[in-house]
Design brief:
The chain is of the alpha/beta class and about 240 residues long. The chain has helices spanning about 45-55, 70-80, 95-110, 150-160, 195-220, 235-245; strands spanning about 5, 30-40, 60-65, 85, 115, 135, 165-170, 180-190, 225, 230. Strands 1-4-3-2-5-6-7-8 form an 8-stranded mixed sheet, with helices on both faces. α1 (about 45-55) links the parallel β2 (about 30-40) and β3 (about 60-65). α1 (about 45-55) crosses α5 (about 195-220) and α4 (about 150-160) packs across α5. The chain is globular, with a radius of gyration of 18 Å.
């Protein structure tokens, strides 16, 4: 079983203006290596673990990082024998030092892509990681996003506004909450008798599809960031042939 380790030595990093996001993601001709960042129960992490185990996602999770100790998500990682660490946000005086420690672990693990899964902490993205960090949000951004909008709060707001549809959004991460360029979205109906819990369950079914899809697109080098837009290249003839039943 993987050992959960606590990283508790704050470091400092001077803030700088992030560079513009690069052009096109680089194709990964092997199982893509992931870091998954978690702050809660780890349902998104478990989905990725299950998708990989079922052979539906050509990836490996090299490391899981939690933002505080004793998370259920870290227990899920340990049960799956995935290396996992804690970088406790409370141990750091600022976002810069916290982010430096998080990405230092990602560097050491040699991952290709960082995936946020219920991660609640703001990050400062180092230049080498710009365009290589994704998040999934349980609403159709740019609506119902931003600081403090997570979990049940999102679904409560959707219902309070009388929305007829909701869904999920996968986006690249920048230095603000839920503000990076959108990669993929999936929608679902909001029913008249929905509660935040029933709506959350329906949205999560769409999340289970959207996140692996976005990771696959990244892995085959199909994503080009063009300002606020992410353009998706069609699959090659070889890839398309493989996808035929």
């Amino acid at each position: 079983m993987a050992l959960q380790k606590k990283v508790a030595r704050p470091t400092t990093l001077s803030a700088s203006t992030p560079p513009s996001i690069g052009d096109r993601t680089t194709r990964v001709d092997r199982p893509i290596s992931l870091a998954v960042l978690v702050s809660g129960s780890g349902t998104t992490l478990q989905n990725l673990i299950d998708q990989i185990a079922a052979g539906k996602l050509d990836a490996r999770i090299a490391i899981v990082i939690g933002s505080r100790p004793e998370l259920l998500a870290l227990k899920r990682a340990a049960e799956a024998k995935i290396m996992n660490f804690v970088v406790d946000r409370r141990d750091f005086a600022d976002c810069a030092g916290f982010s430096k420690q998080v990405f230092s672990l990602c560097d050491d693990a040699g991952v290709d892509l960082v995936c946020l899964g219920g991660w609640l902490c703001l990050l400062e993205i180092p230049p080498k990681w710009v365009g290589r960090v994704m998040n999934i949000h349980p609403a159709l951004l740019p609506c119902f996003g931003g600081k403090g909008m997570y979990g049940a709060k999102v679904h409560e707001a959707v219902l309070a506004h009388g929305c007829k549809v909701s869904g999920c959004t996968v986006h690249f991460v920048d230095n603000d909450y839920d503000a990076g360029p959108i990669i993929a979205q999936r929608a679902c109906e909001v029913k008249e008798d929905d509660t935040p819990q029933t709506l959350a369950a329906r949205v999560f079914e769409e999340e289970k599809i959207a996140y692996p899809l976005a990771i696959e697109l990244f892995a085959r080098g199909a994503l080009t960031i063009d300002g606020r837009r992410v353009r998706v290249s069609p699959p090659s003839a070889e890839t398309a042939a493989k996808q035929q039943p």
